[in-house]
Design goal:
By secondary structure, the chain is of the alpha/beta class. It has one domain: Rossmann fold (3-Layer(aba) Sandwich), CATH 3.40.50. The protein is built from nine helices and seven strands. Strands 3-2-1-4-5-6-7 form a seven-stranded parallel sheet, with helices on both faces. Helix 5 packs parallel to helix 6 and helix 7 packs across helix 9. The termini are far apart.
Amino acid sequence: MNLKPVVLVTGAAQRIGRDIALDLAANGWRVGVHYRSSASAADATVATIRAAGGQAQAFGADLAHEAQCEALVPAVHRAFGRIDAVVNNASLFEYDDLASFSLARMEAHWRANTAPAILLARALNSHCGREGGVVVNILDQKLWNPNPDYLSYTLSKAALEAANTLLAQALAPRLRVCGVAPGVTLLSGEMSGREFDASHRMTPLQRSSTPQDVARAVRFLMESPAITGTTLLVDGGQHLQAQNRDVMFLARDDNQAL
């Protein structure tokens, strides 16, 4: 019987999710690599883990589709014989503001960023062993330093942060539920490379988070049995300084002033 623990990482085919999956695999976890449409990238992540001596398998699902989301944890459990953790990393990040806000935009972010984490935590509670398990939700430092850019995204992550607390209460003592809130970590949206470099330096530490920083923080929480219902901010201190717009726009203004 394989006693190595099993984790499902959503959105693990690429970007931050891939680094989380690789880090956990390198530290003794068997990994369910979830993807929605990036099947080839998910297969590449699985191949990298296996080449390094780890165990992984890819699982496709559209998390905004309730039945597919609810089937994901049971599928991982069947494939590995157990499941011990879920990292809710998959996320929709599309721009809107007050002027462009709509119910459709809000619903799309809610169905991608908030509701799946609740469904997957509930499923893990039903399928983990007697020793219990852990859920780690990837949040955003923006919640501790809010501005109205990316309005629907921010609201969906704020709801997920509240769910962090509610799930930790509802699922204890069987499950722990924690969060990791990165800062500027990878180039995304309409940000240029120059804007990303400037944004990454706009913190008290003059550096923001890297994918490896986020992965280490996730693993720390997963390996810390006394921690639940709280969030680690991994952002170079970005949350300590008020920013009235998303950092991309501040960096853009600085670049244009040069």
